[in-house]
Structures are given as structure tokens and as C-alpha cells.
Amino acid sequence: MSSLVTARRLARDLGEWRTAGPAYRTLADRVRVLLMDGRLSSGHRLPAERELSQALGVSRTTVAAAYAKLRDDGYLLSVRGSGSTLALPGGQRGSQPLETGLALDFTKATAPAYPGLAAAYQQAAEQLPRYLGHDGFDMTGLPELREAIAASYDARGLRTSPDQIMVTIGAQHALSLLTATLYSPGERILVEQPTYPHALDTFSAAGARLLALPVSAESGWDMAAAQLQIRRSAPSMAFLMPDFHNPTGLSLDVEDRARLTAAAQREGTVLVADETTAWLDIDRGPLPPLASFSGQVVTLGSLGKLAWGGLRIGWIRAPRELLARVLRNRPSMDLGTPLFEQLVATILMRDLPAMMANRALGLRRGRDTLVGLLAEHIPQWEVHVPDGGLSLWINTGTVSTSALALAARAEGLAIVPGPRFGLDGAFERYLRLPFAYQSDQLAEGVQILADVATRVGSSPLRMPLQAVI
Ligand SMILES: Cc1ncc(COP(=O)(O)O)c(C=O)c1O
User: Distance from the CA of 387 to the center of ligand 1, in angstroms?
Assistant: First the structure.
């Protein structure tokens, strides 16, 4: 069954879509961008032409021409009586992965596997026979892994017992489990703007109403807005990345950690601190974990960025009674974390300092190379240099990054347009560029961006309000 995208939602996701060139073509291109980056999928039904023309304030002819173009290009199927349904050329399902067949894929903020990873897999294979007498369904996590994870919090000054840890299939799974446990229909969730896109996917799949917590490279977290939102709307949960925030690379300072946890505690808002990026320190140094300020903070962790995305091991650190609720919800989603990967993770946790040092080295090299290339080839872009994380969050000033993504794609480079990281089509002028790539790949990518940026040109965009929805 196809689900209808309302005219209001489409207008919101399109944001400031109008740039130079015929309106119908820009509109068709922008719908394709949404399909490319996963905000729309094949099977979604587009609104009627009249409704969309009203919502966008353009003529019906413009919308009809945009739909006709999408149809001609194979992105829309129109059946009389049942509207226009998005499709992918060649009958593929889902959204159109940005990286399809492209030489350079800058869509993921990930890093290559830790060099010691293959040896850890081999060692785990030797240990595996000892575990085969067990039924293999593991919903809470191997005791030795939970101990190692708890010890990593102890080492950061946050006393943790293994029974406060549940091992999950990556942090994304942990977030889905937590959302299913903490969120009830009708409630609100406070989320950073910009944020990690798949967190937005998780919250919209739950039908959540989202409140924005603005984060900017210039002034960090907007604490006044956060405190106001929490006091006024008492969201059931707030999702944030206090350490090397994805995409900006910023860290929440110590006073703001204290202020935010106090505000959340007063209103009963559960703060979910996603620490997937917390071990990606280049030159910042340690800060106290958010959970050390309040017992009401739930923390997500992962080995995905430090060891390898393909390992798929993450965890939740939470009060025992909350973990018990998560455990009751878990069987509807999965029946446990694979044992072999947990053995690998246990071995890797012994190597934590070495993994962090190795990562810092690679990230520093990538960050400095990319910053240098951008300064040389696209000096007009405003680049804030982060002290950790995996990416630069660039203010291009006037470039529509949706148009840039389409043009770059034609040259073999996949990038994610800024609005994928926000609500309401915000951040059209922003671009996230991950830097954990080889220098020659970064150089090639920046060359393409410099070329297409001049071609796409610039247009003074009016940024939409960071509205509460
Ligand atoms: C902030 C953040 N949270 C969660 C995830 C997902 O982590 P995992 O691969 O452990 O599921 C990512 C991965 O990109 C991320 O950047």
C-alpha cells in the first residue's frame, strides 16, 4: 500500500527549494534529492497537483510540469484514480542510495576499520567453541563484554556496574529500542538542529512531534531555547550528542552539561546522550560524561566509529529499571545480539587506548587535509575546525547544497545535502563533509565541489524559521 505524503509535509521537506532556472525543473530535481537521501521512498504517493501548488505558492502548471518531468525520467508512476506514486528507475525499492555506482562516496561519516580488527576476529574464532553449549540467544549481552563496557565508564569517572549495560546491534538499534520504550504517542521529543539523520528517521517512524534544540558552529547549543522548550513542553525525551556532535563536531561545555541536566531533571525529561562519536577526540581532551551530572541520563555507545561500522556492536547505559523495560520490549524487534561479534568486541575493548590513539592520528590527518584543501580551492566557504569527530559542517553562504548534491552526483561524487540533517528543510546552505578519507580522495572530492559550486552558482536563500513541529 502506498502512503500519502501530504502537501504540507512535502512543502516542509522541500524547504527553500527555489533557485535559478525554471521552477518546474528545480521542483522535480528537489523531489529527486529527497528520494536520493531517504526522506522520501519509492511507494510514497505525492499530493494532488492543486494541493501542492497551493502549499508551495506556485502555479498548478508548474507542479504539473514537475510531475511530468519526474514521470518522463522514471521517478513517478501515475495511475488514473490513484494519484502519482514515487518510483525508482528499474523498479528498485526504497530510496535511491546516494552512493550508487559513484566513484567517491562522501555520504557517510565513518572511518576505515581499526588495523587490529582482523586479529580480533581470529582470536574470537578460537574462543567461540567454548560458547557453543549456550543457546546463543543473548538479549542483555555477554557478561565479560558488559564488564569491559562498564569499566570504560569507570575510567572516565562515571561509576558503572555491568547490570546498567545492555549490549545492542549498534547504537542505531539501541536508539530504536529506547524510543519504543520511552516514547508514547502524542508526546514530544527534543532534538538538536542539526542532528544525526537516522535519529530523525527513528523519531518520525514513531510519529513523534519534534522540538528543535538549535546548535551552531558559532555559538554552540542554544541553552536558552533548550531550557524554554523543556519548561514549556516537558518532552518525554531529548536526544543529543554532547561529544563531537554529528555533524558539527562540537562538544557541549561543562556548565551547559550541568544546566541542561538540571532542566531535564526538573521536568522529568529523559536525556538520551548518544556517545557514538565520543571516542573521536583529536585535540580536545576529556570532559565529564553527561550521565555524571544526573542519574536520569541514558547513554548510547558503539564501537562503530572506533573499530568498524561492520562490527554492529553498541549498547545502552541506563538505570536498571529502565533497562528492564527495554528488555521487555526487545523481543518484538530482535532476539539478541550475535555472540561472535560480542566476543570480537570484548577483545577490542582491551585495546581501547590503542584504538583511540590510532583513530586520533587518522582523523587529524584527514581533518587538516580537508581544511587545507577547502581554504585553497573554495575559500569563500566558512569552515569551523572541530577538535574531534568525523566531519566538517560547512556554511557555504549562498550555495543550495541540494542543487550541489545533484550536480556533484553527475561528476561521480556523492554528498548529502544540508537539509537531511534538520527539520523543515533547514540548512539548505550547509554541507557536511566527512574527512576520514585518503588525501587523494579528499583532493578529488574538493576539486569536483569547487567546479560544480561555480556551475550551480549562488542564490540568496531565505532560511526557513527553525520552527517547532
Ligand atoms: C550520532 C550517531 N549515532 C548512531 C549512529 C549509528 O551507530 P551504529 O553504527 O553503532 O548503529 C551513528 C552512525 O553514523 C551516529 O553518527
Answer: 19
Residue range(s) defining the domain that contains residue 409: 104-113+354-456
Give one word for 424, left, alpha or beta, with left for phi > 0 and alpha for psi -120 to 50. Answer: left
Lowest mean per-residue pLDDT among 5-14, 336-345, 355-364, 381-390: 5-14
196 lines ligand 1 (CB under 6 A): yes
- Which residue, 72, 47, 74, 52, is CA-closest to 62? 52
Length of the chain: 469
In this structure, the answer to whether residues 402 and 417 fall within a common structural domain is yes
Do 325 and 181 form a contact (C-beta atoms < 8 A)? yes
Task: Output the CA 246–ligand 1 centroid distance in Å.
Answer: 9
Lookup result for grid cell 539523520? 197
Q: Does residue 465 fall inside a structural domain?
A: no
Q: Which three cell numbers stand for residue 210?
A: 519534534
Least confident of 74-83, 142-151, 199-208, 273-282: 74-83
Last residue of a domain, one of 333, 350, 367: 350
Q: 346 and 215, same structural domain?
A: yes
Q: How far is CA 124 from the centre of its chain?
A: 30
Task: Give yes or no: residues 299 and 341 share one domain.
Answer: yes
Do 182 and 157 sit in the same domain of this protein? yes
At 457, the pLDDT band (50, 70, 90 cuts) reads low
